[in-house]
Amino acid sequence: MLDEDSNLDVLIDLDDDRWLEWYSADQWHILLHKIIQQVLNQFSFVSKFEVSILLTNNDEIHKLNKQFRNKDRPTNVLSFPSLTEEELRIINKNSLQPNMLGDLALAFETLLSESLVEKKTFLDHFNHLVVHGILHLLGYDHETDDDAECMQKKEIMILNTLNINNPYQ
Questions:
Q1: Strand ranges (DSSP E) for the chain?
Q2: What pLDDT digit, counting tens, does each position of 18-66 carry?
Q3: Strand pairing of 99-107 and 77-81?
């Protein structure tokens, strides 16, 4: 679904019907657009971005995790950036041409299980992982303690603007 009058297009592929037990495809689109737009607003981007989201299951994300990260297990979210760090640095913030930011994949069962174990609502956990994934698309990572701390602070700040509590407490 294209978002007219916005600097963001969110493309969604729902390949597991359990996602539809929570929201309709249009409602997921509205929520994802809101979350991603909030992340982009923190960086004052004016240029147009596209993000592709796969709402999937553990089997599919397991395959992707093995294929692209050589990890033989499912995970909660995978991020596939389309822009290099250099491209992100020099991107024309006022460009009218859309920039494909990248792809995210989220696994229903893992998100649900983690939210129950961590005593968080499913949707708060979902919001957190989308913010986390988009920050990865924007070049953030958590490979070092300093990077992790920086990324967590950014996540907490963005989630606060969405009225979601600190997920690390």
A1: 8-14, 49-56, 77-81, 99-107
A2: 999 999 999 999 999 999 999 998 987 777 899 999 999 999 999 999 9
A3: antiparallel
- Listed residue (146, 167, 138, 144) closest to 42, CA to CA: 138
Domains of the chain from N-terminus onward: 8-161 (3.40.390.30)
Q: Is the pLDDT of residue 2 over 60?
A: no
Tokens 């909660």 found at: 76
Alpha helices, DSSP H, located in 8-121: 25-41, 58-69, 85-90, 108-117
Q: What gap in Å lies between CA 40 and CA 35, rounded to an integer?
A: 9
Other C-beta atoms closer than 10 Å to the C-beta of 16 total 18
Q: Region of 95 please: left (phi>0), alpha (psi -120 to 50) or beta.
A: beta
Reported as a pLDDT band with limits 50, 70 and 90, residue 101 is: very high
